[in-house]
Amino acid sequence: MSKTNAAIIGYGGMGSWHGKYLLASDVANLCGIYDIKEERRKLAQENGIRAYSSLEELLGDESVEIVTIAVPNDRHKPLAIKAMEAGKHVICEKPVTLSSADLKEIFDASERCGRLFTTHQNRRWDCDYLMMKEAYASGKLGKVFGVESRYQGSRGIPGDWRGRKEYGGGMMLDWGVHLIDQMLGIVYDKKVESLYCRFDHLTNDEVDDGFKLDLYFEGGLTARIEVGTSHFLSLPRFFMAGTSGTAMVNDWRDRCRLVCCDKWEEKDVKPVVTAAGLTKTMAPRDEKTTTESFIERPASDVHDFYRNFCAAVRGEAEMTVTHAQLMRVMKIMEASFLSDEKREPVKVEDCIY
To answer: Quick one: what percent of the chain has pLDDT higher than 70?
Structure first.
């Protein structure tokens, strides 16, 4: 099977990441890159990669079938449309656009040009996410009523375009787009009815440097998604609570711990002695009524994203990251900004594109 030819627009942090994977790919061949900065073009050449002299030269290369776009967020839409009009299939870094209206324009261009378009939702291959997805689907926890997902760091927003509103900066568009997509993948069987979101502006007044987003699913399940950039101690990466058990991934490097209830009633519960008195309500359970187990970290290869997209280009598979999924995440991010502005919960439009 011959490899699919690909090129990259943008050779910064993520662009060079894509370049590294494409150079070692078993399904794609890296034809070259283009970046508006001369020093990045020179860096690519030093790494043995062809650097196109202009965007027009890259798009005019008839051998290129796929274009991966890895530039600041505000430039995604015009470049994606231009590439598809030039006959290329397009992979775009997240978030695709800054609004659902812009996203629909890209989808319309994809249909008009007969070219595939998707977004690099690479964190669908994170082991912590895959373990929590398995925990939810297993049914071992009983009726799940709460899921929490967090990334907490202490270095603020990176000192580049991610701190500028005009370029689509901020943690919601940088990390929220991933964590929302993951949460919708975990709670795959329920619709989001409403949400409430509050943004942090601790180190940056122009864009959010953190947020707390609560998603209210049908059936009473609530999901908390939280990103912070001023935390020197972190809460667990994932936490899931059900009527019959609890699951937790403490850190993205850990396996998933499950504690399930075998017997609800327990006789002769010993009260816990606290500084201010006694409590039976919060007394910890023991092995007589619970069982502890683990979900081991699964084998995962993020390059399966490119394997799927190349197969879709050949007409051998459906895209893993669909237009409907991209639009749903975009709608939730838009509703989050509205909720923060109004300081109240808002309904989420159910979007099946």
So the answer is: 98
